[in-house]
Design a protein that fits this description.
The chain has 522 residues and is of the alpha/beta class. It has four domains: 55 residues; 173 residues, Rossmann fold (3-Layer(aba) Sandwich); 71 residues, Helicase, Ruva Protein, domain 3; 188 residues, Peptidase M41 (Methane Monooxygenase Hydroxylase, Chain G, domain 1). The protein contains 22 helices and eight strands. In the central section; belongs to the AAA ATPase family.
């Protein structure tokens, strides 16, 4: 580029000299001559500046530029989120209040010789509010909030990730008191081994040094979040680095009610809507799911040109989140529709017989990849299940395939998802809960590989026994199965009240142990 600029400049100068020696020069004034000379100099300077900004810059130059931008005042924020915006999680918030008090009134703790916790680790299922809690801690303390993701420190160039860690902590110390939040920390904090990536190891080592360094005077709290605490390195989890590990689980019914109140407080609801009933219908959902349900209900109401959100909109939103998008114009053969109706009727009838969970809705309207679905609504949150209750849940899942075999004498592909869930439950019974003939043992992955044949036999044995019992139940109550299937073909959807009206005085008296053994022996 430099040679090209010199060539252009020399060419311009030579042309200018040639032109100056011509007779035309006598016709130009001194002002014209200065103008031409000035244009020539400006063009030369322009070409020289082009050379200072090469087109093919190395990737590390762009990286350094980004890091300089991150060092600006916009690198951190001061969130306005407080604990009032975080519904549920009362136990976790009580623990965090101590950390907040330490940041706000650190002197009284230092007088007692107490040290602020270096780090807090949030772990649990996704969508349970880990990021929101970290932001609320910064909002309560009015501290500078530095947010980063674990993947931001992962680079192919050795030393870049470690430098970013140092820069982050240096900036946090300057703005102390401050809160550093690292989301998905398992991206850089995974266990080290012989085959580890050298760059990731250096980044993790730098993080360990910063968490347990000599600079302990500054009030800097590190909060991290992960969905896989089992992947993290032991050196990262020890006291002195992450002193407190807090498990953030899916909310219970009371917490779901509080979360729904937060997400519906700015929405026009029908006065007849009961938030407590909605909380019971959303069993097993996380905070992110509940936020999505409230938002979907509002969108559905707008789509129907309504001014208030009704319970019907919420029920459609729950189905949308659980089962997926409704297929408007399905191309299903009449024979397939009949098979689906008996399949879903089998799930619903076995659920009614065993009284596992209340059947909230049965439908043969396709949603997502499912041609039909049954929504169960547990009466209460359960945390401990017996072997019999786990078998009952498996029998409800197997009700669809058993109904198909009973009515059509065939096995179809419609039970794929059911079999996957049944296999998972049966494997947990054998490998984790000690509910098989292998004994009261917990199988580690290495043991599972060595005992794979025995484990498969036990899993098949449990599933086969549950399937036989399910088949015999449906055989005994075949009339009720056909009633439900016929109603589904006519209406496509049945809710709990319509199902009760259809079956009348059903289910029968609760099953006894003798009755169950008799059905298994048939």
């Amino acid at each position: 580029m430099i040679i090209l600029c010199i060539f252009v400049a020399l060419n311009i100068v030579s042309n200018f000299v040639t032109w100056a020696n011509s007779s035309l020069i006598n016709r130009l004034t001194s002002g014209d001559r200065l103008l031409i000379l000035g244009i020539t100099i400006l063009l030369f300077i322009y070409y020289m500046k082009l050379d200072k900004n090469p087109q093919y810059a190395h990737a590390t130059i762009n990286t350094e530029k980004k890091e300089k931008d991150q060092n600006s005042n916009e690198f951190f924020t001061k969130p306005k989120v407080t604990f009032q915006d975080v519904a549920g999680l009362e136990e976790v918030k009580e623990e965090l209040i101590e950390v907040i008090d330490f940041i706000n009134q650190s002197e009284k703790y230092k007088k007692m010789g107490a040290k602020i916790p270096k780090g807090i680790l949030f772990h649990g299922p996704p969508g349970t509010g880990k990021t929101l809690l970290a932001s609320a801690v910064a909002g309560e303390t009015k501290s500078a909030f530095f947010s980063a993701s674990g993947s931001e420190f992962v680079e192919k160039y050795v030393g870049v990730g470690a430098k970013r860690i140092r820069t982050l902590f240096e900036k946090a110390r300057k703005e102390a008191p401050s809160v550093i939040f690292i989301d998905e920390i398992d991206a850089i904090g995974a266990k080290r081994h012989l085959d580890s990536n050298n760059e990731k190891d250096q980044t993790l080592n730098q993080l360990l040094v910063e968490l347990d360094g000599f600079n302990t005077d500054q009030t800097v709290v590190v909060i991290a979040a992960t969905n896989r605490i089992d992947l993290l390195d032991e050196a990262l989890l020890r006291p002195g680095r992450f002193d407190r590990h807090m498990y953030i689980s899916n909310p219970n019914v009371k917490a779901r009610e509080e979360i729904l109140k937060v997400h519906t407080r700015n929405k026009p609801l029908d006065p007849s809507i009961s938030i407590s009933d909605l909380a019971r219908k959303t069993h097993g959902m996380s905070g992110a799911h509940l936020s999505n349900v409230a938002n979907e209900a509002a969108i559905i109401a707008v789509r129907e040109n309504k001014h208030i959100i009704t319970i019907a909109h919420f029920e459609q939103a729950i189905e949308r989140v659980i089962a997926g998008l409704q297929v408007k114009n399905p191309t299903i053969l009449p024979k397939e529709k009949e098979v689906v109706s008996y399949h879903e009727a089998g799930h619903a009838l076995v659920g009614k017989i065993l009284r596992t969970d209340m059947v909230h809705k049965v439908s043969i309207i396709p949603r997502g990849q499912a041609l039909g679905y049954v929504i169960h609504m547990p009466q209460e949150d359960r945390y401990v299940l017996t072997k019999e209750e786990l078998c009952d849940k498996m029998m409800v899942m197997l009700g669809g395939r058993a109904a198909e075999e009973l009515i059509f004498n065939h096995l179809s592909t419609g039970a794929k998802d059911d079999l996957k869930k049944v296999t998972e439950v049966a494997m947990q019974m054998v490998c984790e809960y000690g509910m098989s003939d292998l004994g009261f043992i917990y199988n580690e992955p290495s043991m599972i590989r060595s005992l794979s044949d025995s484990i498969n036999q036990e899993i098949n044995k449990i599933i086969y026994e549950c399937y036989n019992t399910t088949y015999n139940y449906l055989k005994k109550y075949r009339n009720e199965l056909e009633k439900i299937s016929t109603a589904l073909l006519a209406r496509e959807t049945l809710n709990s009240s319509e199902l009760d009206e259809l079956l009348g005085d059903f289910p029968p008296t609760p099953k006894t142990k003798d009755e169950k053994e008799k059905l298994e022996a048939v």
